[in-house]
Amino acid sequence: MPKTPPKTPPRTKSPGPANEMSGIPVGMSKSAVSCSSPTSPGARRNIKVYSHPVSSDVNGAGDLSPEVNGNSLVSSSFIRDKYRVGKVIGDGNFAVVKECVERLTGQEFALKIIDKARCCGKEHLIENEVAVLRRVKHPSIIQLIEVEDTPTELYLVMELVKGGDLFDAITSSTKYTERDASAMVFNLAGAITYLHRINIVHRDIKPENLLVCEYPDGTKSLKLGDFGLATVVEGPLYTVCGTPTYVAPEIIAETG
């Protein structure tokens, strides 16, 4: 009888923080580990955890405060008056992501609503991500449109990408054409090149942080998101961070 080939186990998304994983070399510095940022639209993904606060010097971000990067506090009704808020398209430990439409123009966006009470003590991660996103502008990077700060919540109005993340796209596809694959690599390389030219490193590139744009002609492109671990390079970086299943070998070995 012919042998039945073993079933390939389903792919699973990136595991939780490295201190909950096996296989991390003994003595590896765990200054920072990652699953996703608190503003990521991934479903119930854990926040990045640091053993010490991240510097919030990016683009003028100051110390922790009730406000984010100098935003003056407004009422949550300001957002509701300006945008028509729709269905939930993602959620996490500290944030929910909803579709929204600007009332004046009819343009669609993604609205990330961050609950300040649930991310107490992790504000520096959000400040860092917002500061970097305010600084970057590239066609292959998710664009931050607007930030509105309220006493209890932070609202991030962002570019809406409806194709989901690359991980889900890969697992639901039997194959990718060479045209689509090469276009996606081109998009990612362009985004990384741009970031490095302005001395920013992302430090958590993985399929879950790449959003897929789908076009009427069937072609696809990528946009890089989730900048919770990104930082401006002003000198040597010694913090070990990233998602363990995707981090570069030299980072794990602390040689790069």
State the helicity in percent bands: 10-25%
Estimate the strand proportion.
Answer: 15-25%
Whole-number average pLDDT?
77
- Main sheet attributes: strand count, strand direction, barrel closure: 5 strands, antiparallel
Using the CA coordinates, give the radius of gyration: 19 Å
Runs in which pLDDT lies below 50 for 5 or more consecutive residues are: 16-36, 43-70
The CATH homologous superfamily corresponds to: Transferase(Phosphotransferase) domain 1
Q: Report the end-to-end length measured between terminal Cα atoms.
A: 52 Å
CATH class: Mainly Alpha
CATH architecture: Orthogonal Bundle
- Number of helices, counting only DSSP H or I runs of 4 residues or more: 5
Kindly state the number of beta strands.
Answer: 11
Strand order of the largest sheet: 3-4-5-7-6
Q: Kindly report the CATH topology.
A: Transferase(Phosphotransferase), domain 1
Computed structural class: alpha+beta
- What is the chain-wise order of helices and strands? EEHEEEHEEHHEEEEH
GO molecular function: ATP binding; protein serine/threonine kinase activity
Binding site for ATP: 112
Family: Belongs to the protein kinase superfamily.
Region (Disordered): 1-45
